[in-house]
């Protein structure tokens, strides 16, 4: 009797559970996997979208808060990685980092319009820039290094800029005091750029968007200062380097929040009638302590714009 009752309950509930499963929206991981063919269309020749999907799923496991982000911001960042041929989360190419965007307007499950939510911001690393720069075919080597206080370091500017850097090998090298990048061209020439630690800190304080409520810098500039400083030296140097379409686009996309999923190649995107992707330079802060979003007033212009967008109309 008991077994028969169990069987009948299972038969009656299984279809309902299956229907409920079918009605559930796809998870972020499922959406990433479903976009594999779109990623492949966007990628440079020889790159594999299957690898990008595996890297992206690894990012979700190592940074679980990405699942709290606006899904399109995660997928848009991955589309940029696909177009640039960079691997997110590995090799120091690029990272997708969750931040709280106080300007995001969205509708909750109860139909209430709210402001504020998580988005994913694409951060391109020094190694990613290095990879893109070397694809130009005009660069033999590109090197970035950290100078420590007990190293021997000499810098001379003139007709032939020159750096002599001898790291200390017989003891502690001390604190970081400077950063530099050197590019050598296949033609035989070279360029270099040096930043003191004070200059790197000034750049961080001026441009780092990721901050907590107290205004303190968070994110990569706090957790990986030296790497971000070397990247800054490279970006200063890049002004004097030959640029490929990919390198110029990477500089433009770095630090942005992209929410479109157009798989067009970068050359087409740059020269199209509407060349800019739907990207937002989000004013973002650390997500710690943020609520699920503040309700908007009926007379808030952001609410009117949001409702018009949902209905397919324009903004006032």
From TrEMBL:
<dbReference type="GO" id="GO:0003677">
    <property type="term" value="F:DNA binding"/>
</dbReference>
<dbReference type="GO" id="GO:0006259">
    <property type="term" value="P:DNA metabolic process"/>
</dbReference>
<feature type="compositionally biased region" description="Basic and acidic residues">
    <location>
        <begin position="1"/>
        <end position="10"/>
    </location>
</feature>
<dbReference type="InterPro" id="IPR004590">
    <property type="entry name" value="ssDNA_annealing_RecT"/>
</dbReference>
<feature type="region of interest" description="Disordered">
    <location>
        <begin position="275"/>
        <end position="316"/>
    </location>
</feature>
<protein>
    <submittedName>
        <fullName>Recombinase</fullName>
    </submittedName>
</protein>
<dbReference type="InterPro" id="IPR018330">
    <property type="entry name" value="RecT_fam"/>
</dbReference>
<feature type="region of interest" description="Disordered">
    <location>
        <begin position="1"/>
        <end position="27"/>
    </location>
</feature>
<dbReference type="Pfam" id="PF03837">
    <property type="entry name" value="RecT"/>
</dbReference>
């Amino acid at each position: 009797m008991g077994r028969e009752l169990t069987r009948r309950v299972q038969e009656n509930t299984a279809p309902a559970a299956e229907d409920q499963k079918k009605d559930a929206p796809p998870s972020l991981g499922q959406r990433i996997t479903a976009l594999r063919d779109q990623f492949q269309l966007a990628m440079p020749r020889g790159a594999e979208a299957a690898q990008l999907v595996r890297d992206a799923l690894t990012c979700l496991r190592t940074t679980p808060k990405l699942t709290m982000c606006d899904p399109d911001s995660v997928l848009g960042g991955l589309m940029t990685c696909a177009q640039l041929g960079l691997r997110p989360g590995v090799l120091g190419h690029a990272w997708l980092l969750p931040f709280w965007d106080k300007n995001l307007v969205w509708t909750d499950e109860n139909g209430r319009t709210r402001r504020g939510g998580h988005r994913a911001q694409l951060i391109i690393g020094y190694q990613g820039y290095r990879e893109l720069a070397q694809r130009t075919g005009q660069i033999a080597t590109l090197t970035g290094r950290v100078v420590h206080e007990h190293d021997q370091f000499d810098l001379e500017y003139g007709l032939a800029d020159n750096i002599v850097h001898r790291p200390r090998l017989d003891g502690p090298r001390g604190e970081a005091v400077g950063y530099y990048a050197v590019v050598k061209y296949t033609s035989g020439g070279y360029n270099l750029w040096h930043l003191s630690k004070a200059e790197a800190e000034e750049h961080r304080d001026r441009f780092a968007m990721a901050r907590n409520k107290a205004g303190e810098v968070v994110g990569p500039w706090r957790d990986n200062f030296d790497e971000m400083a070397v990247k800054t030296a490279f970006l200063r140097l890049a002004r004097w380097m030959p640029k490929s379409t990919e390198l110029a686009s990477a500089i433009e996309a770095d630090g942005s929040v992209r929410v479109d999923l157009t798989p067009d190649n970068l050359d087409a995107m740059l020269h199209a009638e509407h060349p800019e992707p739907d990207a937002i330079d989000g004013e973002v802060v650390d997500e710690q302590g943020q609520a699920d979003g503040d309700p908007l007033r009926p007379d808030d212009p952001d609410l009117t714009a949001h409702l018009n967008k949902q209905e397919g109309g324009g903004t006032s």
